[in-house]
Structures are given as C-alpha cells and as structure tokens.
Amino acid sequence: MQTAPGASLSDAAPQPRQPRKGLLVVLTLVAVGVYLLDQLSKAVAVARLTAGDPVELVGDLLRLDLTRNSGAAFSLATGMTWVLTVVAIVVVVVVVRSARRLASLPWAIALGLLLGGALGNLTDRLLRDPGFGRGHVVDFIAYGHLFIGNVADIAIVAAAGLIVVLGLRGTNLDGSRPVAAAPAQTDDQPDD
C-alpha cells in the first residue's frame, strides 16, 4: 500500500468514529417510543380483548387475538420463561454497552428498536402473572395462522432486519466500513 509523501500507514487506515451524543439521544428516543407504544397497546389489548374471541381486521390474514405467551416466538421454549427473562436481560445489557461505540444513525435506530422491544417483553416477564421472572408476555396481533405477536416483537424483527442489512453493507457500529485492500504492485509489472 502506498501512502502520500509525509503520510504514515496509520493515516491511510480507517479510523473509528467517536460516539456522538445525538445518536445516543436517537437510540433512547426510539427505545422509549417502542417501549411506551408496546406497553400502551398491551394495556388496551388486555382491557378490550377477550381471549378466544378474535377481532378480524383483514379477514383471517390479520386479526386481534389476545393470548398470554410463556415461551418465545412460535411458542418455542414454553415453560422456560425464566431462561427467556435472562436472555432479555443479556440483550439489554449488550445494547447498553454497545451504545458507547455508537457512531452510525442506522445502528442507533436498530439498537433503539431492539432495546425498546426487549424491554417491552422483559417488563411482561418480570411483572405479569404467574410471577416475577416467569410472567407471560401479552400477544394480540395475529398474522394468519402463523403466529401471534405484539409491538415489541415487531420492533425486534425490524431491528434484526436492519442489523442484517447493515452487516451485509459492512457498516460497523462505529460507522466505519472495511476498506478493500488495493492490489499490490510489483516491480515486474510493465509500466504503460
């Protein structure tokens, strides 16, 4: 790799960006917005819907159908609510710790969605029946006969999709992108 006269190799290497407070504000606002929307929608669902009495919105494709989920998506890990509680706590800790390196708006949005969704479902697991750390998550948005979820689940899935796109684009948490190495020039190549 060649450098300009007076420049060092370290000048040519991409430097990670410093976290910006504005991005932490974005992450926080997205997380708080998702959390409040999730908790409010669950409160309305519990107050207005009756389990086993679905309300069709778009035929059988989209309906409101109140249920309590002790497991994860698709009712996986049913009966292992405490494990899911621990996983949610770990996700929250990882997002909060990762925020220190944050220097990318798309990552701020993705982590805000993930944090808000994780906190929304974690609140259910900590505070709802049958007890602390074993609470069942309120689900009420039914997608055909595939699965039933909530606003927190939508945020988590959106965050996962955004994180996949950022990963495929090579955008790091600090906003940097890997630089492709230039082909090495050898002395035995003819000059034009």
Automatic annotation (TrEMBL):
Keyword presence, Membrane: yes
Membrane topology: Multi-pass membrane protein
One function term, GO molecular function aspect: aspartic-type endopeptidase activity
InterPro entries in alphabetical order: Peptidase_A8 (IPR001872)
Transmembrane segments: 21-37, 72-95, 102-120, 140-168
Subcellular location: Cell membrane
Catalytic residues as annotated in Swiss-Prot or TrEMBL: 139, 153
Pfam family name, one: Peptidase_A8
First-tier enzyme category under EC: hydrolase
Role of this protein: This protein specifically catalyzes the removal of signal peptides from prolipoproteins.
Family note: Belongs to the peptidase A8 family.
Name recorded for this polypeptide: Lipoprotein signal peptidase
Species this protein is from: Angustibacter luteus
Lineage of source species: Bacteria, Bacillati, Actinomycetota, Actinomycetes, Kineosporiales
Gene coding for it: lspA
